[in-house]
Design goal:
The protein is of the alpha/beta class and 406 residues long. It folds into 2 domains: 2-310, Glycosidases (TIM Barrel), CATH 3.20.20; 312-405, Immunoglobulin-like (Sandwich), CATH 2.60.40.1180. The protein has helices at residues 2-7, 38-41, 53-63, 78-90, 118-135, 157-164, 179-182, 191-203, 205-211, 235-239, 245-261, 294-305, and strands at residues 11-14, 23-24, 29-30, 66-71, 97-100, 140-144, 170-178, 183-184, 188-189, 217-226, 265-268, 311-315, 317-319, 322-324, 329-335, 340-346, 352-355, 364-369, 383-388, 393-396, 400-405. Strands 1-4-5-6-7-10-11 form a 7-stranded parallel beta sheet. It has a 6-stranded antiparallel beta sheet with strand order 12-15-16-21-18-19, covered by helices on one side. A two-stranded antiparallel sheet has the order 2-3. A hairpin with a 4-residue loop joins strand 15 (329-335) and strand 16.
Length: 406
């Protein structure tokens, strides 16, 4: 709880991803179902960490976060899931956002058997949305999105889903960049390639054309580097990069890119809060260390920077009158009516001189920097420099993150 509170998350996703398709909210554990995936059913009693609504309530009280509820459309009834939302409200957890199932368009997802096409899924969602909105008129509801090349049933998933639902608030997107395409054993993360791959996802025909002219939002409810899709012979060595400062820079970069890439994107949720260290912000498995991992370091920096801010503006930088690409240096200005913060990230291995224009009147700053290949937990092996700006320019060291109060 103490670690999570320091992250200052704004939205928590309950009960999570694929577990949601098999979740019993009353017990805070998996449903007793004949088709329960073996990976869930085989978890020993000693390793159970039950997460019922009272636990969620405690987490919300500590963090002040809102909740995105992922409903079980696969192994629960509509009545049961509406009861869950009412119970959450009784416990003081506002019902603002709902997501209907998780990744049911993936051919290797057991739930895909029940929803062979986007039309099948959309027909069920249409009925659920109608009833949920009757009970919770102000809630926003999202459905699973994403065309797939796995088979003919899901090639036009987005179009088929939206065609079956007359009124839906958002389409869910999950953005994972395969490490086998973006990470090299010796050089590490290729940020230029990462930039190209990310833009390719959101500029693809399935994203732009199928959504059409509707006012449909896009919620990216999971994103990260996909550290499990690797060549077996290099897998362990490359996965070690996920524990370095370079991965913290990568998470900040991906967060920035997804936030900016389309005006339709209205929600961005990092995967994952806990569990496996290659993805987690906080390590809880296989070792219960509660260490803040590089993903968590990045999230703590980003989320603390945007606290209480209501406006955001992407910043662009130049060097010798030439544009600096985002995969080299990127920045944001966050503000409200009374104050603001500047976030600047130097991904390169060189000093970068940043022109801050009028943001130099003794403004306080904090800079985090480290060797990009350094393994870091809890910000150990990360240098932190604090001071006040004394000129219109700021020299950022290599692999550095700066936060400036304005």
């Amino acid at each position: 709880m103490a670690r999570i509170k320091k992250l200052k998350p704004q939205i928590l996703r309950y009960p999570g991803g694929n577990v949601a398709n098999w979740w019993n909210w009353k017990t805070g554990w998996f449903v007793n179902h004949k088709n329960l995936p073996q990976k869930f059913g085989s978890i020993k009693d000693a390793n159970r960490v039950k997460m019922d609504l009272s636990e969620l309530q405690s987490l919300v009280n500590v963090t002040g976060s809102d909740v995105l509820f992922v409903l079980n459309v696969l192994t629960a009834t509509l009545e049961d899931q509406i009861n869950m939302l009412h119970k959450a409200e009784e416990l003081g957890i506002p019902v603002k956002w709902v997501e209907l199932g998780n990744e049911l368009n993936l051919i290797n997802n057991p739930g895909h058997i029940a929803f062979r096409t986007g039309g099948n899924y959309g027909e069920k969602c249409s009925k659920w949305i109608l009833k949920i909105k009757e009970e919770f008129p102000d809630v926003k509801i999202a459905v699973v999105g994403g065309n797939r090349k796995d088979n003919n049933h899901v090639k036009t998933w987005n179009r088929d889903v939206l065609g079956a639902i007359p009124d839906v608030d958002a389409l869910v997107w999950h953005s994972y960049l395969a490490a086998k395409h973006t990470v090299e054993l010796k050089k590490g993360i290729n940020f230029e390639l990462l930039d190209r791959k990310l833009k390719g996802i959101f500029h693809a025909e399935g994203f732009k054309k199928d959504i059409g002219n509707k006012d449909t939002e896009v919620w990216v409810t999971e994103y990260n580097l996909q550290w499990t899709i690797l060549k077996d012979e290099n897998k362990k060595q490359i996965q070690k990069i996920s524990q370095t400062w370079q991965n913290a820079l990568a998470v900040l970069f991906i967060t920035s890119e997804i936030t900016e890439v389309s005006p339709r994107v209205k929600m961005v949720l990092n995967h994952n809060l806990t569990s496996f260290p290659i993805f987690a912000a906080i390590e809880t498995f296989p070792n219960t260390t509660y260490n803040l991992l590089p993903n968590g370091e990045a999230m703590q920096i980003w989320l603390n920077t945007i606290q209480q801010m209501t406006l955001m503006q992407k910043l662009n930088f130049e060097e010798n009158e030439c544009k600096i690409e985002d995969y080299e240096v990127f920045g944001w200005k966050f503000s409200n009516d009374e104050q603001g913060r500047i976030l600047i990230v130097n991904i390169t291995d060189q000093n970068k001189t940043i022109d801050l224009n009028s943001f130099y009147n003794d403004n306080p700053f904090k800079v985090y920097y480290s060797n990009e290949q350094k393994t870091t937990v809890n910000f150990e092996d990360v240098q932190i420099k604090e001071g006040k700006l004394k000129s219109e320019t700021m020299v950022l060291p290599p692999h550095a993150v700066a936060i400036i109060e304005i």
